[in-house]
TrEMBL record:
Domain Serine aminopeptidase S33 positions: 215-432
GO molecular function: carboxylic ester hydrolase activity
Organism: Deinococcus proteolyticus (strain ATCC 35074 / DSM 20540 / JCM 6276 / NBRC 101906 / NCIMB 13154 / VKM Ac-1939 / CCM 2703 / MRP)
Alphabetical keyword list: Signal
This protein's name: Peptidase S15
InterPro entries: AB_hydrolase_Est10, AB_hydrolase_fold, Hydrolase_4
Pfam families: Hydrolase_4 (PF12146)
Signal peptide: 1-20
């Protein structure tokens, strides 16, 4: 959940992606046990010496351990990087004459690669993990990877239907995702979920959390049809996010809204948009051309300032929370501004605190020059928010360090004037609307809660009240 979420500082950082918000095109072949461990794959008969082995380990990322798992099966494997949404994804295994294994996931941000060999001193695999510009030693031990507890994620059997769908976005780009429908014939109100910045999968996977999976489940159980899509070039969707302009992404919002309005189970007059972070900006932008207007908008941790201003505020807020001096903060803010202005990310010799640690693979000149980033930097969401006549709920965390209060709640109160609109700054919550101690992104994975229940209850009451007036 965007999602977000802003991966743009990480484009300037030189650290490992702890999660790349992307969705596997192939479903998981293994599933967690009740203890949170992933079940081992069944042995394959007559295969190489490494076959039928289940391995686990971790990478140290900014003071926390990022889990890695590998189920070897003959000439292939199932890769587990749960912080990135990689859960039992099939990958090929290449073995050289010396017995070294190379495992690479090509269709993934940064193309994660493991090179491993069995260590002679113990029953372990040792080698190197690489993703984007990051490289780190890696040791794997026998046994299954343990997934962090995520108590809000739905477990089957589910009391609603789920369908795989394709929406034809702007320029006839195929956007694929999941539609969940309450039991019964309907028609039902509907919500389109819009993820935060960077390549996000339909579940808005990051740091081992799947906020849109949780939100879609919560809404569908309360009588909403919910559509969530893989972003362009992510998961099962076609296209390329970074070559897209904001006008293309706004067109995608309009196409997905039209898809919902034409669905037999949906009330066409009760379709709304729910966006997290940048997704809220795109919701307001896309809504301008929708006729009729959406029934509602919900902005979760969304900014109310231009992207360039947001990145500066975000950087200063996070550095201050980490205890840096005013001089250090000013120096790094100047470096960031120069890199964005001159398209020269290579000038940054000191790591910046990443607003999206998982997106560090974006450390590239191509990204800084991309139409997507340039539109993000220059787009001002304020005119669309101020002109909107759509009832809008804005929920922002008081401990949000990615969209700080100066860029979010304080401005939203001035801009949202449509009848029925409300702005709430929620005490103790971070950018993902989790209960947080500091609000720093480094905390996200360690927090079991994916979405604060009180925030969800507030959302539910507002939706019920807003739709009752239609």
């Amino acid at each position: 959940m965007s999602r977000v979420l802003l991966p743009l500082l990480a484009a300037l950082a030189s650290s490992l992606p702890a999660t790349a918000a992307a969705q596997a095109t192939t479903p998981s072949l293994s599933s967690p046990t009740a203890s949170g461990q992933v079940a081992a794959a069944a042995p394959a008969a007559g295969t190489a010496p490494y076959a039928a082995n289940t391995w686990h380990g971790s990478l140290l990322q900014r003071g926390r351990e990022v889990p890695v798992g590998l189920n070897l099966r003959g000439n292939g494997a199932e890769l587990w990087l749960p912080d990135q949404g990689i859960r039992g994804v099939p990958v090929p295994v290449v073995r050289n004459a010396a017995g070294t294994l190379t495992i690479r996931l090509d269709h993934w941000p940064g193309q994660p690669q493991l090179q491993l060999a069995r260590s002679g001193e113990a029953a372990v695999l040792r080698g190197t993990f690489r993703q984007g510009g990051f490289s780190s030693p890696l040791t794997l031990w026998p046994g299954a990877v343990t997934l962090p507890p995520r108590p809000q994620e739905p477990r089957g059997p589910l009391p609603y239907r789920s369908q795989e769908v394709t929406v034809w976005g702007e320029g006839a780009v195929a956007l694929r995702g999941t539609l969940t429908l309450p039991p019964g014939p309907g028609p039902f109100p509907a919500a389109l979920l819009l993820s935060g910045s960077g390549p996000q999968d339909r579940d808005s996977t990051l740091h081992g959390h799947r906020p849109f999976l949780v939100l879609a489940d919560w809404l569908t159980r309360r009588g909403f049809v919910v559509l969530r899509l893989d972003d362009r070039g992510t998961g099962a969707s076609d296209g390329d996010l970074y070559s897209a302009h904001y006008r293309d992404l706004a067109g995608d919002v309009q196409a997905a809204t039209t898809f919902l309005r034409r669905h037999d189970s949906v009330r066409p007059d009760a379709v709304g948009l729910i966006g997290h972070s940048e997704g809220g900006s795109l919701a307001a932008l896309g809504a301008q051309a929708l006729r009729p207007a959406p029934a509602f908008m919900v902005l979760l941790g969304s900014p109310a300032v231009p992207g360039r201003e947001l990145l500066d505020l975000q950087l200063r807020t996070q550095l201050s929370a980490q205890g840096l001096s005013s001089a250090e903060i000013e120096a790094r803010a100047t470096l960031q501004a120069q890199a964005l202005q001159n398209h020269r990310v290579g000038e940054l010799q000191v790591p910046l605190p990443s607003s999206e640690i998982e997106q560090a693979w974006l450390y590239s000149r191509a990204f800084v020059r991309s139409p997507y980033l340039q539109d993000f930097l220059t787009y001002d969401p304020r005119p669309a928010l101020q002109a909107s006549q759509v009832p809008t709920l804005a929920l922002l965390g008081a401990r949000d360090l990615q969209v700080p209060p100066a860029a979010g709640a304080a401005r939203m109160r001035e801009l949202l004037q449509a009848p029925g609109s409300e702005v709430h700054e929620l005490s103790g919550l971070n950018h993902l609307l989790q209960p947080a101690r500091t609000g720093l992104p480094q905390e996200y994975a360690a927090i079991p809660t994916t979405l604060d229940p009180a925030a969800l209850d507030l959302l539910g009451r507002w939706l019920q009240s807003t739709l009752a007036q239609r």
